[in-house]
Amino acid sequence: MKYLWTTIHVKDMKKSLEFYQDVVGLPLNKSFSGGPDMELSFLGDGETQIELICDKNVKEVQIGKDISLGFEVDSVDKMMDFVKQRGIDIVAGPISPNPHIKFFFVEDPNGVRIQFVENM
């Protein structure tokens, strides 16, 4: 068995695509219609991807606060500067529980916690 993707139901496909492409740096692999009121997009490189679903008939998206998606970065300090320049609030961190790792959290446009991790 292999892990394929994480699905996130989003309120606004355009804002979500901008976040995951421009901030996280994931390439868009494919976008398509899932019906008259539904858009789907897959992002990422390699085997594991993120699937975004925007259903215009759904008024509110429920996001769990105890789940986060982690992405490795070369420098937490540079990434913190980058997200601040884009007007994105840091919701926690930087945190360094040991000398080998440092990370911080932001939220995507839907409230999903995103963790940026530097392995030192």
Can you list the strand order of the major beta sheet?
1-4-3-2
Tell me what the CATH architecture of the largest domain is.
Answer: Roll
**What is the H level of CATH, i.e. the homologous superfamily of the largest domain?**
2,3-Dihydroxybiphenyl 1,2-Dioxygenase, domain 1
How many strand elements?
8
Overall geometric form: globular
Helix content: 10-25%
SS element count, helices? 2
**Biggest beta-sheet profile:** 4 strands, mixed
Uncertain segments are none
End-to-end separation in angstroms reads: 31 Å
Write down the domain tally.
Answer: 2
**Strand content of the residues, in percent?**
over 45%
- CATH C-level category of the largest domain: Alpha Beta
The average pLDDT score comes to 90
What can you see in these coordinates?
The protein is of the alpha/beta class. The chain folds into 2 domains: 1-59, 2,3-Dihydroxybiphenyl 1,2-Dioxygenase, domain 1; 63-120, Signal recognition particle alu RNA binding heterodimer, srp9/1 (2-Layer Sandwich). It is 18% helix and 45% strand. The longest helix is centred in the N-terminal third of the chain and has 11 residues, at 13-23. It is globular and about 50 Å long. InterPro entries: Fosfomycin_Res_Enzymes (IPR051332), Glyas_Bleomycin-R_OHBP_Dase (IPR029068), Glyas_Fos-R_dOase_dom (IPR004360), VOC_core (IPR037523). This is Lactoylglutathione lyase. Keywords: Lyase. It comes from Alkalibaculum bacchi.
